[in-house]
Amino acid sequence: MMTATALAPEKSLRKFAMIDPFNRLFERLSTYAPFFEENVPLSTWAPACDIYETEKEIVLKVEIPGVKKEDLKVSLENNALMIHGERKFEEETKRENYHRVERNYGEFLRSFTLPPFIEPNKILAEFKDGLLTLMLPKIEEAKPKQIEIKVK
Fold first, then answer.
1. Which residue, 15, 25, 55, 58, has fewest beta-carbon neighbours within 10 Å?
2. What does DSSP assign to residue 30?
3. Whole-model pTM above 0.85?
4. Helix, strand, or coil here: 24?
5. HSE of 68, CA atoms in CB hemisphere, 13 A
6. Which DSSP symbol is given to 64?
7. Splitting the chain (152 residues) into consecutive groups of 10 residues, what average pLDDT does each group show?
8. Is 122:137 a contact under the CB 8 Å cutoff?
9. Is 58 helix (H, G, I), strand (E, B) or coil?
10. Pairing of strands 106-113, 124-128
């Protein structure tokens, strides 16, 4: 009888495991979901990403522990925000000495189509402790405004 291991789940299962939580996250943001569609690239892995909205901006937080700043690139092209990087395998220990390898290594690419109410020239990116945070400010017209009600 064969036993299963968690060393290398089938690629088809990994694909669904990455896409389903992402899609569920955006069910609540259905108004903006078409803009934050992601073209799932054929890469070895994709880092986890949270996206939330405040009054002034959309915030993306991407978990990429073990990735160095010099191995990370964030770009904006044709209204698509792209996060590209690489987590390199630690060469200090020889692979044959490992008993289990569960962390993902290699290149990754995440790309998101931005909604039209984002100010592309004011996007900020911070990278600290393996967490990439992108702040996408809204244009002034898209921010909520309070309308005074007059009583007559």
1. 55
2. T
3. no
4. helix
5. 5
6. -
7. 42 46 49 51 77 94 92 92 87 68 83 91 94 93 78 86
8. yes
9. strand
10. unpaired
